[in-house]
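User: I'm designing a mutation panel for C2 domain-containing protein and want to avoid disrupting the core. Could you give me a predicted structure to guide residue selection? Please restate the sequence first so the numbering is unambiguous.

Assistant: Good idea. Sequence first, for numbering, then the predicted structure tokens:
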Amino acid sequence: MMASIGEFDPLNTRVPATKIEVTLVIFLLFFMLPFWLLLLPVVVLYLQAVGTKEWREFGRTEVIDNTRNPDFVRKFVLDFFFEEKQNLRFDDFLGQTFCTLGEIIGSTGGRLERTLSGIPGKKCGVIIFAAEELSNCRDIATMQLCANKLDKKDFFGKSDPFLVFYRSNEDGTFTICHKTEVIKNTLNPVWQPFTIPVRALCNGDYDRTVKVDVYDWDRDGSHDFIGEFTTSYRELSRGQNQFNVYEVRHNLEVVLYCSVTQLNFTVAIDFTASNGNPSQPTSLHYMSPYQMNAYAMALKAVGEIIQDYDSDKLFPAYGFGAKLPPDGKISHAFPLGGDGDNPNCVGIEGVLEAYFQSLRTVQLYGPTNFAPVINKVANCAAEITDGSQYFVLLMITDGVISDMVQTKEAVVNAASLPLSIIIVGVGPAEFDAMEELDGDEVRVSSRGRLAERDIVQFVPFRDYIDRSGNQVLSMARLAKDVLAEIPDQLLSFMRSRGIEPRPALSSSPLPELHRHI
């Protein structure tokens, strides 16, 4: 649950000292509740505004079915301001408690205990807060887990297994960070792949102990413990796209696939004449000294988020549809930096600088051909298909595609590769034809072949422009929408290539596991 106390500052002028993750555990008092009562605990966090003292909801935990001692997976991530008193209120269905963020941080070991009070003079339970400063780690782990020969826990069936991940704390305790889904009635479960921020798993400490518990789900909440094993993120990621086998109690073997996928971000910008003369304010490429144009806004909005997952921060950047100096040759995939052998720019600011420089040196022309750039990036993606790298191509354009037939062919070919394509339309043009490439409704096809996956996301930028002229808000809306499909597209590639657990070299071949994959 990523949000910021700073959102209550109308001018957003405050700079937080750091971000703090707050975890909650509740112990309810049994004598206050009848034994037959079905409990659905959830905790709501309220923040007190500095000026008005009004309490405003910040967020809430997940609901945990039928338990009196909930250990919530969902955390609250708060901006911490050392110089301010940040009042917090936590409500659940039995009572509430108050504290400040500073109290949680300043408590021994970063753990604070408070009483839940509801009925006057009566204690309803105890809530324990744990606080930890978040690291700047931006890695994302993709995992899939399987198990073989689980214990049979259900009298009339097999088992309904699920996994719970915990990260270790300095005081020897553990903090829950992920739960898998329940797989019903099997002793050889194969859980769905999932992605988890490495920050949530170990807060950037690759050697921090990670514990995984295995349970048999029961409807009444009294889940049966099956076994556990411990590992670390370094151990999980030591052999990317290889498989680790862990022995745990009760004759359980778990095969874990963990892959840190590196994102490679490429930009392609439309330099066709329909954008207008860049020296004129009416041009979509106009370089105003007071504000960014639509191309720069789209590039910055998407790029500044993706760059956190690209370790080298070197981004290939291309233009298409321009005449290049000195001979006026038309190109549909020219490096913005002017170096034909090296299209890389350093960081998003480097891409923007190269974009502005190209506007001063090339002649806007046409036509609007997409296929050359798509094929260029697809050729790079075709060289690395083991799941260790994934490519994202951002194309920004003002008009209708001139080579739709060739572009469809390029998209169909690229759909089998680790590649996603984001197309942002800028300006007032009608982009109806673009919907043919966005395969949400009808999958793209070419010469009788359907694309294996939906890899294209198209949006018109004008749908995200804030009416008050707030560029920051416009960019945030755009980035949130166009990037939302990337994780699912990445996982769909993994599945389409069969990148999933299979037996590692060990004494146990796990023969039954093959039949479940």
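For picking mutation sites, this is relevant: DSSP finds ten helices and 28 strands in the chain. Residues 1-13, 250-259, 501-517 have pLDDT under 50 and may be disordered.
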